[in-house]
Amino acid sequence: MIIEQKYPLPPFTEETAQEKVQLAEDAWNSQDPEKVAKAYTVDTEWRNRSQFINGRKEVIAFLSDKWKKEKNYKLKKELWAFSDNRIAVRFEYEYQNDQGQWFRAYGNENWEFNEHGLMQRRYASINDLPIAANERRL
Fold first, then answer.
1. Are 25 and 75 spatial neighbours (Cβ–Cβ below 8 Å)?
2. What is the per-residue pLDDT for 1?
3. DSSP code for 6
4. Mind listing the pLDDT tens digit for each residue in 62-80?
5. Mean predicted lDDT score pLDDT of the chain
6. With 80 as the cut, is the pLDDT of residue 16 above it?
7. What span, in angstroms and rounded, lies between the C-alpha atoms of 67 and 128?
8. H or E segment to which residue 57 belongs
9. CA terminus-to-terminus distance, the chain
C-alpha cells in the first residue's frame, strides 16, 4: 500500500510552515484543480464562505467552477500562526468577473494536516471588495 505524503510534514516549524504556505499559494495560482486537490486528504472537509465541501472530488468540482467564474486570478498568502499540525493564513486575491469588474478578496484560513502532510480540514472566511482596474496590487 502506497501512503500519500505531502512535504513538509507536521509538526511544523516556522520555516516549514512558511514553506507549506508558499506551496499552497503556488498551487492555487496554477489554477489547476487536480494539482491543488492532491494537497488534501481524500476525505478532506472544507468550509469556504458559506459552502461546505467534502472530499477531493468535491474540491476539484468547486475549484473548476471557481476558476471559470474568476478570471485573471492571482493570490497572495501570508503565514499568520502555526503549531503542531495547524497553520493559519491571511490572504488576498484579485480576479475579474465575466462583466470585466475587478474584485479583491480578503480572508483567513485555518488549516489542519494529518501526519502525512495532507490537509484534512480547511476553513475559510472570505470577503470581496469591488475595485477599479487601476487599484490592482497583484
1. yes
2. 74
3. -
4. 999 999 999 999 999 999 9
5. 97
6. yes
7. 15
8. helix 56-69
9. 42
Nearest-CA neighbor of 66 among 31, 26, 34, 104? 31
- pTM for the model stands at 0.95
DSSP-derived pairing of the beta strands 86-96 and 102-113: antiparallel
How many CB atoms are closer than 10 A to CB 74? 15
Residue 27 zone, left/alpha/beta (φ > 0; ψ -120 to 50; rest): alpha
For the chain, the domains span 14-135
Q: Does an H or E element contain 74, and which?
A: strand 71-83
Architecture of domain 14-135: Roll (3.10)
Nine-digit cell string for 112: 489542519
Phi and psi at residue 135, to the nearest 5°:
-95, -5
